[in-house]
Design brief:
Blueprint (H helix, E strand, L loop, with lengths): L4 E6 L19 E13 L5 E11 L3 E2 L2 E8 L5 E8 L3 E2 L5 E4 L6 E4 L1 E10 L6 E4 L16 E9 L2 E9 L4 E8 L6 E7 L3 E6 L8 E7 L20 E5 L6 E2 L16 E11 L2 E10 L6 E9 L7 E10 L3 H4 L12 E8 L3 E8 L3 E8 L7
Antiparallel strand pairs: 1-26, 2-3, 3-10, 4-5, 5-6, 7-8, 8-9, 10-11, 12-13, 13-14, 14-15, 16-17, 17-18, 18-19, 20-21, 21-22, 22-23, 24-25, 25-26
């Protein structure tokens, strides 16, 4: 699909690590592995706000025959520390993480720790107005000791609701923040438990309830009958709530991977669903297995306005794919390819302003005509 406006608006070199929450804590050099996967919303002043995931990594994670990770340590009074594991017990094939052998379970640690940086953009999303380092969101408890990832922001009425992934050995949970202005956030705690990711709160109520897309993960899925149009595996599920804090899973399934394609063999939510004249527009990601990371693309569906378990219309061709032309100037910083991960959407008049993470490295803004989602 052709897009009239498609550009990177924030890259790793735009981040000032001297103003990072980690600054001064570690006796080791860090760098920005990626500034990506931005939540997006419109501020009361008309500007846009990206909540950017800054993945701050050790320049040399391997030394003294150990591979190291950064951890926020509550016992140390809220300081950041380094942990080391012997290389003999670690698989470092994926640049974003390392797997630890033994124990009978899949166990991993990250090569970076992520925190969230609010970045204010012009109303069209194409220029950076301010980086609000004083409003950065960083770990504050042991349930976030390995970082906070992938914010998604929804505006429901006059309230801003932001879901994030909080990472720790305790659990990989979905946590919630609330705000009246999208700059000053209150931590509301865990709303979904272990390995339920990509939680997107609908931007509006349905029959008086908050609704959300969720994506539980696991290693075991039951088979669909032979000849089914669906493929077993991770799917986009639904949940609803009276207050956006306590959630009940919906009995009906949401968006499921199709058996006829491997492009959505793994899938999950992208941008929070927004209401259009035809129903709820939802942008989501599908992952085609390829090498270690896979190929990430963005797709879209329209959900029924009264029953979002009903898919009114969908498009099997991708809406967005990774764009090598955009990342050519920062190719020397690339560590994964073929990844676009859409995380935000805002109304731009005759078009939508779509925010994505590009190559787990940078923030991409794309203007997509609203006519792209209407029937001819």
């Amino acid at each position: 699909m052709r897009h009239d406006v498609d550009k990177l608006v924030l890259v790793p070199d735009d981040i000032d690590l001297s103003r990072s929450p980690l600054a001064g804590h570690l006796d080791a050099e860090t760098y920005v592995l990626g500034a990506f996967n931005p939540g997006l919303t419109r501020l009361p002043n008309g500007n846009l706000l990206m909540m950017v995931r800054v993945a701050e990594a050790l320049r040399k994670p391997v030394f003294d025959n150990h591979v190291h990770a950064i951890r926020w340590d509550e016992a140390e009074g809220g300081r950041y520390v380094l942990d080391g594991w012997p290389l003999d017990f670690a698989d470092t094939a994926d640049p974003r993480k390392f797997m630890l052998r033994g124990g009978g379970w899949k166990i991993m640690a990250l090569t970076s720790l992520s925190w969230l940086l609010p970045v204010e953009l012009s109303p069209d999303g194409l220029d950076v107005v301010a980086k609000h380092y004083d409003k950065a969101i960083a770990p504050t408890g042991s349930l976030q000791c390995y970082g906070i990832e992938d914010a998604r922001i929804s505006r429901v009425g006059d309230a801003y609701l932001m879901t994030t992934c909080s990472v720790s050995p305790e659990r990989h949970s979905t946590t919630l923040y609330s705000s009246d202005d999208a700059l000053n956030w209150t931590f509301e705690g865990i709303v979904l438990d272990h390995q339920n990711k990509d939680m997107l709160i609908f931007e509006g109520l349905i029959d008086g309830h908050y609704w959300a897309q969720t994506r539980p993960l696991g290693d075991l899925y039951f088979a669909y009958p032979p000849g089914s149009e669906w493929r077993p595996g991770p799917s986009i599920n639904l949940a609803y709530s009276p207050d956006a804090r306590f959630w009940k899973p919906c009995d009906k399934p949401g968006i499921r991977p199709h058996a006829g394609t491997v492009a959505t063999a793994r899938m999950g939510g992208g941008a929070p669903p927004i209401l259009t004249g035809e129903g709820w527009l939802t942008l989501w990601h599908g992952v085609e297995p390829h090498e270690i990371v896979g190929i990430y693309r963005t797709y879209w569906s329209i959900l029924d306005r009264d029953d979002p378990s009903v898919v009114v219309r969908t498009e099997h061709a991708p809406l967005l794919e990774a764009n090598p032309d955009l990342t050519a100037p920062i190719d020397h910083q690339m560590y994964v390819r073929d990844v676009v991960f859409t995380t935000g959407i805002a109304d731009g008049g005759d078009h939508y302003i779509v925010a994505s993470g590009e190559a787990d490295l940078a923030c991409r803004i794309t203007h997509i005509p609203k006519s792209s989602f209407t029937q001819d």
